[in-house]
Amino acid sequence: MFTALLFLLQLAPPPIADLSAELAQRARDAGLPAVQAAVINHARLLAHGAAGVTVLNGSAKVTTADAFHIGSCTKPFTATIVGMLVEEKKLSWDTRILDVFPEWTKTIRPEYRDVTVADLLSHEAGLPPYGEDEEIKALPAFTGSHTERRREFSRYVLEHPPALAPHTGFQYSNAGFDVAAAMAERVSGRSWEELVRRRIFEPLHLRTAGFGWPARVWGHEQDGHGALKPVDPHGPYQLPDFIAPSGDLHMSSDDLALFLQAHLRAMRGTPTLIAPQTAAVMHTRRKKSGLGFGVASVAGFENVATHSGSADTMVTVIAIAAKEDVAVAVSTNAAGEREEKAVGQILRELLTRYATR
Q: Taking a C-beta distance cutoff of 8 angstroms, is the pair 111, 159 a contact?
């Protein structure tokens, strides 16, 4: 009996390391209301933790089950949906906007006529950023369903001059991902929300994932003196639904890590949500980034898939080092240079600590 018990113990996976104590110290050092992190490899969750409070000066503690707004880390989800549709031959990376929306031939700017979905996902389409409140507030009112409003927004931005001539350089643009999402909606007959829910959330069992602001964790922005002030997630600061594909998902770091794991496995040759061939295209650096992910050197590791996200009240950073078999997600519920620096440092240290060398 003792031998059998010993055998079972040897088969049991190592426990998940608890990062909460060190994250609590990091939160105190950087003045963060809360911080959450998760580390994963191709096989399992290696470490996770959470520390701090859901709202500044509150008593409710953040846990690893809490969702944070991930901002532009939504973009890899949108790019993954496009990758799935490419595998199904409903799109190709070279599909042009006008191939999907031929009715726009006479209305969109001539500079955009040869722009492809890969150009949109690599920020090489030249579209303006549409990342500031002023840009969003200046837009006309779009009506109809999520899909109809996203299509009208896409047509609107394509009827206006580019910020940079397409194919000539890198111009970060939220609008590019919203146009790509509109293309995915047209060829699939499904809304972006339904595609993400059915093709990513449900297969990966992302139980905390959703759209818009999380219900429990409040974000924080800086006042004129640099002090943090809470922003009510149910208040007036909401992102328009038509730009959701570029930055309006929420989830826990554990769930975000499961999404990163799917890419990690595909990057290492195992089919998951996407095939290894699709992952190779998505994670190959073009002018400055891949498709939906950055491709950069991080903590001394090369060709790391990266992204950061913030809608001005929270910050999330992610990294996948495929060769080293590790991926990391870190979130905090405050936004600013100090907060970005703090979560970036945590990410680099965790990536280094858990990398397989």
A: no
